[in-house]
Structure formats: structure tokens, C-alpha cells
């Protein structure tokens, strides 16, 4: 549904003509009636009163609008925070709930639901000996007093239930690894608990996971854990107020169309400024811009909205009405390689594909060079970035040589084939409606053709694409983006234990199916190292192994464009996994 242009409130045109109230105010117009008489004292007083009222109106403060209409390009496949890992869902869920901790816009870990961080220094975190002889950690947590939207208190039992779901092999959570690490959970009382983790990690203070309401979700889960992902109240009862404890709650959800949020009466934090948020799902990035200019949309979410090339052109035309912020982010545009595909199993083939793609030219032509070429999953913005890992430049000659060596020397009708006569024809899947991704896919298709590889492009709606990734239902290549946290160890995407399968309930995010014992060791060791310098060396190992094996082909690091109307204040881009919507209560509209 397209929102019609806003009409001024009754009487606003007349008030605007007097210079009292502009047509965008949400304040009701005041209607005054005066009786016309002869030049009497009453008439003179009436005229003086009207003049005084008009003059005072110039002193009125600007009135904020009550409704903010947002837009983004994807519709969540599910609203359950534990299932799937779509950014679209995260952006909305951050408005209705909160993780225990998160990285703030200055990239520091802060408490959102807890009363204070747990550290070795303050004694709320302790090294302990585990029964297997290894070292673990005990971490004490105190929750702030909070209530779900139906008035039920948020308690330690909600966290305990979430861990139960996360550990169950059939629950369908996006990644169960973090839950399985918690080997013991002791509830002290409703707001205090202690969890014992099976290892010592450098980021132990960051308890960055969402939890769900036990009083609503537990009966559903207990009835049939294997079917929980299909029966969760987040999807069957999305407007149930008991699913939210953040500043807003969902009051309407039309899949693929819009999601409406209104203030949560039980929210105990800073009162949000808007009485209604409408999030429109507009999967075409071209249509996003049109809706923004027409006034049908107030703001397109920067994390999942206008592409950088659109924003650059938009700023040149409309910088008088919008502020455009460019936030370099820990967002990694890349191509997953299906390693089960026999055409792609040889790493020389993957190296050849990467060298056949002119990533710098793509960045220069589409993004004015603002999106730097990626040489791996760790951004140069991250303190753990290392320059020693192998970097691949555009080199079609070297690409052809590697393809020859890998057994694809014969070319027939412009396409390489191996000794078995199998044509080197593969498919790349990506999200439909994203103009930039479609352009990049077409450029890659053309460049791979130059070295004898046939590339077929398949674009799917984001929800379908995401569901296919979760079950590894792509045949060759899959192009999309990961967003990470500062110093994030890429265990869930590169460790062999994180390969989704039917056996583990499709948990994990290692969609290529990559398994290398050396990489597993580097990932495990990096997490456990507390010393920054030693951990930086281990991060270098991860980057080196990744660059040699290339289970994922790096494209570029994204720069998010936040196209903000000048009246919208309080939006602070973060540039990492914890999005700006975690602080939605600070957003406000100032005319």
C-alpha cells in the first residue's frame, strides 16, 4: 500500500496564510469566532485580543510529529529473535526488545538490560576450574527491573528458557554454539543469575543475545521442539504485547507490506518521542527513493535502504532538504562458494574466479571509490586487521592459467570444460530488488565470461534467499553481506562445527560447508586469548588461511548511507552489528 501525500489539518491553510502555524504541524488548528459590532470597547478589545494571539503564536515551540514512516528493503522471514539471522528482523526487534549488552556507536560494550558489566576487575566474572580440567568462567548478571508488554516481569527464568531453546538440537536457532557453551545456569532470584561458560574468552563481558518470554513461548516449545520455529508466537501472534519489553511493541504486521509499532506502556526506559512507527517494506531500492521524495516515507533505514550510488546521486540533488551521512561499516559484501559443487572444490578455481573480477573498477564506477575492496572478512577499520594476508588483484591472465592447471583447459563455444566434458557453468544467487547487487552480478557475469566461465544469475526475494541460505539451498555462488561486531571472531561462518545440516537442525552460518582443521584451531585459539597483541597474531592466522582457501570470495566493505531528513534528530549510525535502532527512543522530529 502506498501512503498518500499528507494533507494539512483542518484550518492549517488559513493559519499558514497568517504566518501562525505551518502546514506540517500536528497541533490542531484553533478556530476563533468574533462578533462584528460597532466601534465599541468590546470590539476594540476583541481586535486587540486577536492581534495578541497572532503575535504570541510566533513564540510557540515547534511541535513534533506523532507518526514516523520508515522504510527498508527486506521483510523478515520470522520475527523470533532466535531463529534466522536477517538484518531486517534485527532492525525491528531492536525497537521492541534489547540484548543484555551491546556495542554502542563508539564501539564500546554497554549494558542495555543489565545493571552493570561483569568483569574480572569488579569480581562479577571469575576464572574457574571445570570438571574436565579446563578453565572456564563464572559470570554474574543482574537484570534491570523490566516488564513484558502484558505486565509480566522480565526475569532470570526468561533467560534460562532461552538457553534451553538455544541448546536443543531441533529448535532451529540460527546458531546454537553460544548457547551450548553455557554449561551451568544458576538462578539466584528473579533478577540475578550466574552462568558458567566452558571456556575463557576475551569478550566475556559482552553477553549479546536476545531472550524470549517464557510465559508465552515455553508452552509452545515444550509441545514440540522440532516444530517450534513454525509455531512460535512471534509469527502466529505478532501483536501479542507480551512479546515486547522495549520502547515499542508491534500492533500490526502485514507480511511483505508493513509493520506498525506503538509505544509499549510497560517500558521503563526513556519515553519514546513517536506515538506510531510505520515500517514499510519496499524491496526495490529505486522505489525507496521515489517514496522518500514524494513524502510517502519520512526516512529510509540506513542499514537496509538506499544503496551508496543512490545516496551519492541523491545528495547532489536534494542536499537542501536532507543530511546524508556516510558510515564506513563492518559490513562485508561477499560471495559464498558452495564447496560441495565439484566444479568449485579446487581452491585454484576459487582463486581464479576472484582474480577474474575487477573489484576496484566496480567500486570506482558504482561507488565513486568509497567502498574499499575487501581482501577478507576482517575490515581495515577493525583493530585486528592484518595486511600480511595474501591479496588478489585483477589478473585475468593468471586466472586463465589457474583454470588450466585445475583441469579446465579446453574451451568449447566460449565455455571451459574438464576432461569429463563438464561445462564450467555455475549459478550465482542474490537478492532481488537490490539494484546494486543486480548490477554487480551482471558485471561479474561479463568478467567471468572473459576467462571462459559461464555464470547464470538468479535473483530471489530476500526472505526466500535467506531461507535458502539457512539450508544451503544454493548450487554454486551466493552474493550477500555479513555485518559483524568489533573484533568479531568469524567462528559461526568459518568453523567446521557451524555447517548447517538436518542433523543439527540447520543451525550454524557456515553456508559454504568449509572445513579446515587449521582454521578451526585458529578460531578456537583467537577466542580464548586475552592478550591483545597475541590475539592480533592469531587473527592474522585466520586472515591468512582464509585468503589461501577462499571458501568465501571477498568483494568490498560497505559504506552505509544514512539519508536523513533535516527534521529527524537522534539517529546515530554505529557501523557494526548493533544497529542504530537500539536507541530508537532517542529519535525525534523537530520542525
Can you describe this structure?
- The structure is a single chain.
- With 591 residues, the protein is of the alpha+beta class.
- Among the domains are: 12-57, no CATH class; 98-232, Alpha-Beta Complex (Dipeptide-binding Protein, domain 1), CATH 3.90.76.10; 329-559, Dipeptide-binding Protein, Domain 3 (Dipeptide-binding Protein, domain 3, Roll).
- Helices cover 29% and strands 20% of the residues.
- It has helices spanning 12-17, 41-57, 87-96, 156-167, 177-180, 214-223, 228-231, 233-236, 285-294, 308-318, 347-355, 359-367, 396-405, 435-449, 462-470, 491-494, 517-528, 532-549; strands at 67-72, 101-103, 109-111, 125-129, 135-142, 182-187, 192-197, 248-254, 258-263, 276-281, 299-300, 322-337, 410-412, 415-417, 425-431, 454-460, 477-483, 552-565, 568-569, 588-589.
- It has a 5-stranded mixed β-sheet, with helices on both faces.
- Helix 11 packs antiparallel against helix 13.
- It starts with 11 loop residues before the first helix and ends with a strand.
- The relative contact order is 0.15.
- Mean pLDDT is 88; it is low at 1-62.
- What is the multimeric organization of the chains shown? single chain
Beta-strand proportion: 15-25%
Helix content: 25-40%
Write down the overall geometry: globular
- Based on secondary structure, the structural category is alpha+beta
- How far apart lie the N and C ends? 27 Å
Number of helices: 18
Q: Would you identify the CATH architecture of the domain at 329-559?
A: Roll
Question: What is the gyration radius calculated from CA atoms?
Answer: 27 Å
Query: Mind summarizing the main beta sheet?
Result: 5 strands, mixed
Counted beta strands: 20
The CATH homologous superfamily of the domain at 329-559: Dipeptide-binding Protein, Domain 3
From the 3D structure, determine the CATH topology of the domain at 329-559: Dipeptide-binding Protein, domain 3
Mean pLDDT: 88
- Biggest sheet, spatial arrangement of strands: 8-9-10-1-11
Identify low-pLDDT runs.
1-62
CATH class of the domain at 329-559: Alpha Beta
Amino acid at each position: 500500500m502506498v501512503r498518500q501525500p499528507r494533507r494539512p489539518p483542518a484550518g492549517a491553510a488559513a493559519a499558514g496564510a497568517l504566518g501562525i502555524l505551518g502546514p506540517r504541524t500536528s497541533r490542531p488548528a484553533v478556530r476563533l469566532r468574533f462578533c462584528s459590532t460597532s466601534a465599541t470597547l468590546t470590539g476594540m478589545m476583541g481586535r486587540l485580543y486577536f492581534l495578541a494571539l497572532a503575535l504570541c503564536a510566533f513564540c510557540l515551540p515547534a511541535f513534533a510529529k506523532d507518526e514516523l514512516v520508515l522504510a527498508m528493503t527486506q521483510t523478515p522471514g520470522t520475527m523470533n529473535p532466535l531463529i534466522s539471522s536477517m538484518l531486517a528482523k534485527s532492525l525491528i526487534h531492536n525497537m521492541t526488545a534489547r540484548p543484555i549488552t551491546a556495542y554502542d556507536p563508539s564501539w564500546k560494550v554497554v549494558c542495555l538490560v543489565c545493571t552493570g558489566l561483569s568483569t574480572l576487575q569488579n569480581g562479577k566474572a571469575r576464572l574457574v576450574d571445570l570438571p574436565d580440567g579446563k578453565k572456564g568462567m563464572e559470570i554474574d548478571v543482574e537484570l534491570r527491573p523490566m516488564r513484558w508488554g502484558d505486565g509480566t516481569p522480565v526475569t532470570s527464568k526468561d533467560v534460562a528458557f532461552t538457553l534451553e531453546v538455544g541448546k536443543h538440537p531441533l529448535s532451529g536457532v540460527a546458531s546454537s554454539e553460544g548457547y551450548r557453551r553455557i554449561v551451568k545456569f544458576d538462578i539466584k532470584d528473579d533478577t540475578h543469575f550466574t552462568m558458567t561458560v566452558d571456556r575463557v574468552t576475551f569478550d566475556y563481558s559482552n553477553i549479546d543475545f536476545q531472550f524470549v518470554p517464557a510465559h508465552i513461548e515455553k508452552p509452545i516449545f515444550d509441545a514440540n521442539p522440532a516444530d517450534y520455529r513454525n509455531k512460535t508466537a512471534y509469527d502466529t501472534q505478532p501483536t501479542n504485547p507480551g512479546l515486547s519489553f522495549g520502547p515499542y511493541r508491534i500492533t500490526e504486521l502485514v507480511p511483505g507490506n508493513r509493520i506498525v509499532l506503538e509505544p509499549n506502556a510497560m517500558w521503563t526506559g526513556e519515553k519514546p518521542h513517536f506515538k506510531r512507527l510505520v515500517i514499510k517494506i519496499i524491496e526495490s531500492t529505486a522505489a525507496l527513493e521515489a517514496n522518500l521524495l514524494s513524502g510517502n516515507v519520512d526516512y529510509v533505514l540506513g542499514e537496509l535502504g538506499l544503496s551508496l550510488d543512490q545516496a551519492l546521486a541523491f545528495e547532489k540533488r536534494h542536499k537542501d532538504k536532507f543530511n546524508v551521512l556516510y558510515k564506513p561499516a563492518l559490513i562485508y559484501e561477499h560471495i559464498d562458494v558452495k564447496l560441495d559443487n565439484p566444479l568449485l572444490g579446487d581452491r585454484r578455481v576459487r582463486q581464479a574466479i576472484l582474480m577474474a573480477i575487477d573489484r576496484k573498477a566496480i567500486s570506482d564506477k558504482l561507488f565513486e571509490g568509497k567502498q574499499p575492496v575487501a581482501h577478507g572478512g576482517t575490515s581495515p577499520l577493525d583493530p585486528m586487521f592484518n595486511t600480511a594476508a595474501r591479496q588478489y588483484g585483477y589478473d585475468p591472465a593468471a586466472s586463465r592459467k589457474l583454470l588450466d592447471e585445475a583441469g579446465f583447459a579446453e574451451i568449447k563455444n566460449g565455455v571451459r570444460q574438464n576432461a569429463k566434458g563438464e561445462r564450467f557453468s555455475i549459478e550465482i544467487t542474490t537478492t532481488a530488488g537490490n539494484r546494486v547487487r543486480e548490477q554487480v552480478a551482471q558485471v561479474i557475469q561479463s568478467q567471468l565470461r572473459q576467462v571462459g566461465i559461464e555464470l547464470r544469475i538468479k535473483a530471489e526475494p530476500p526472505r526466500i534467499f535467506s531461507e535458502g541460505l539457512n539450508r544451503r539451498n544454493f548450487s554454486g555462488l551466493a552474493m550477500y553481506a555479513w555485518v559483524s561486531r568489533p573484533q568479531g571472531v568469524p567462528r559461526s561462518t568459518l568453523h567446521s562445527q557451524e555447517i548447517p545440516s538436518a542433523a543439527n537442525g540447520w543451525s550454524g552460518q557456515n553456508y559454504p560447508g568449509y572445513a579446515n582443521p587449521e582454521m578451526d584451531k585458529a578460531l578456537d585459539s583467537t577466542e580464548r586469548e586475552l592478550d591483545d597483541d597475541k590475539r592480533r597474531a592469531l587473527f592474522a592466522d585466520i586472515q591468512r588461511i582464509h585468503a589461501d582457501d577462499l571458501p568465501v570470495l571477498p568483494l568490498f566493505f560497505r559504506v552505509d548511507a544514512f539519508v536523513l531528513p533535516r527534521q529527524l534528530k537522534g539517529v546515530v549510525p554505529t557501523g557494526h552489528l548493533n544497529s542504530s535502532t537500539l536507541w530508537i527512543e532517542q529519535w525525534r522530529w523537530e520542525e
